[in-house]
Design goal:
Shape: globular
Structural class: alpha+beta
Order of helices and strands: HEEEHEEEH
Distance between the termini: 32 Å
Oligomer: single chain
Number of strands: 6
Strand content: 25-35%
Length: 155
């Protein structure tokens, strides 16, 4: 394991501890990145390494959710987004603290180039052949978008 990966693991654990201990509300964004009939999914290097999920991260203090989603998708995967819009807003308490997550949707023509420290993998999957190891929340969002459904109340 590289020192950079160890630093990501430690930082993630400290961040989770503080957020749980002080019930810090967070503001995040997840990006459904489409390329034709494919969706971009990632695997992190520092948590849930066996699970695919949507790229994303935190929204900065003076940043819009669209700008944050575009930035996070590019930082994590190198993919530039076009035709970006908001799919929906969600509240998750799955990690032990309240997390407000906005899901955006955008299109790309780029091939992913995953951030070597943060990600183990970033690749496209056909919308009709999602991996079994996809997180439940990510699967719900992709299916909603693929099938033209409104956002559900469940994260």
């Amino acid at each position: 394991m590289t020192p950079l990966r160890i630093a990501y693991i430690v930082a993630h654990r400290v961040r989770l501890f503080l957020r749980r201990a002080f019930q810090i509300k967070t503001r995040g964004v997840k990006a459904v990145v489409l390329r034709g009939r494919e969706v971009l999914l990632i695997r992190h290097s520092y948590f849930a390494t066996d699970r695919f999920m949507l790229p994303g991260g935190g929204v900065g203090r003076k940043e819009t959710v669209l700008a944050a989603g575009i930035r996070e998708a590019f930082e994590e995967t190198g993919c530039r987004l076009d035709n970006v819009y908001v799919h929906g807003d969600f509240i998750s308490n799955s990690e032990g603290f309240p997390d407000h997550i906005t899901v955006i949707v955008g299109e790309t023509r780029d091939d992913p180039m995953p951030d070597a420290g943060e990600l183990l993998e970033a690749r496209f999957f056909p919308l009709d052949a999602l991996p079994d190891a996809l997180t439940d929340a990510s699967r719900r969002r992709v299916i909603e978008i693929r099938d033209g459904l409104p956002p559900s109340d469940e994260w």
